[in-house]
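Possible regression after last week's pipeline update?

I re-ran a chain I had predicted before the update to compare outputs. Posting the input and the new output here so someone can diff against the archived version. Not blocking, just want to make sure nothing changed silently.
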Amino acid sequence: MAEEEDSGHILAQFRSEDGDNSGAPFDLPLSSTTEHLQAVCNQMLDNEDAVPYSFFVEDTEIRGSLGEWFKKQKEKVNTEKAITIVYQPQAVFRVRPVTRCTSSMPGHSEAVISVAFSPDGRHLASGSGDTTVRFWDIFTETPHHTCKGHSHWILSMAWSPNGKVVASGCKNAEIRLWNPVTGQQMGKPLVGHRKWITCLAWQPLHKDGQCRYLASASKDGDVRIWNTSLSKCELILSGHTQNVTCIRWGGEGLLYSASQDRTIKVWRPDDGTLCRTLQGHGHWVNTMALNTDYAIRTGAYDPSKPQAVSQAEATAEELTTLAEERYQQAKSTNKELMVSGSDDFTLFLWEPADNKKPIARMTGHQQLINDVRFSPDTRLIASASFDKSVKLWDGRTGKFIATLRGHVNAVYQVAWSADSRLMCSGSKDSTLKVWDVGQHTILMDLPGHADEVFAVDWSPDGERVASGGRDKVLKVWRT
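New output (post-update):
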């Protein structure tokens, strides 16, 4: 085996990220670039249409040629054995980084606390301390509807996965449902919680094409499941001894709740059974995310095929089938994984449907963790902390990858682009930052807000980012 960096050959074995070998080992010239590897891989897998891939050797991504990697790793490489090259398919479409603020939309008279695009990215809703939910026209970038009814701050908001309803929860323990097209309230307020609403989660579209069931978490320690078509509470899940901070409705038919009592509970929402309690955190559990969150959030809408289905015209059965396909694709051969973030500065990676023990305890943050999100392709986890940094972790093992530094104050929220190549973060320092996830570098610094940025969301179609904060202004950013 030749030792010259770019003139020799190396014995290579291609392997999928699930651990399956593709073909037999063969000689590759060290001068092979990622373009050559792409061509070889597509040919070997008989792909009719070329699929873009990333290549990794021992968890190190190959960015230039094999020779460059070999030069760095020469001492550790055993050239008698085949080198395993792991290939990962990437999103076929590309999201461009947002670079400019196209509109600053005033209207709210208090801080903007939550901002959320609809599952197909065509509608935008915001919730504020001024007790209103507002819908915005994203094409003309003007106010659309102002929804009044709440009597206190709106703390949480959630789009139904079919995009036809927005639920909002306020500090007065009320939940209201809104029609995004007309701006009218739907049905009666959902009343029952004794303290303010902290989080809302809809049942995934592939489990119910009608999107009837909504789960709510409250500072009173309860989780309630509501039938929104009847405006009544079906189940009360009691067990937490303190404020329930976050809930997620998983695609496997389980509901997960995180609390300030330092535990995460796994429930069966059909009958209210408590399946297991996940323990490990030493302080309040603030946030959690599922690796299937993005597929569940977007339901039947596929960013790579934006015109494939019109959610307005499709039947509930068609939407359910499409959503099931997207969910299974996101989950692939793996289990549904969950990551939790806490005031104890740590994250835990769990396999909550099957195991009480965590897969990994992820340490490194120097302050409490405020937000955590899986990338849409499920391979990465981003965590935002009061230590002014965003950290990246491996979505399967919990292994630390990189720290993204640039903010000069606490980072409140992060949002991924649909292709998992970019990420946007909002901070107490009044800026948004767009990050190149592959290179671990800052792409764009987006100043413009006059005060802290509490909420940020990247539309599922990848076209725009919306942000809101203490300055009461909603900003839309575009490429």
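Follow-up from reviewer: compared with the archived run. The longest helix spans residues 316-331. Marking as no regression found.
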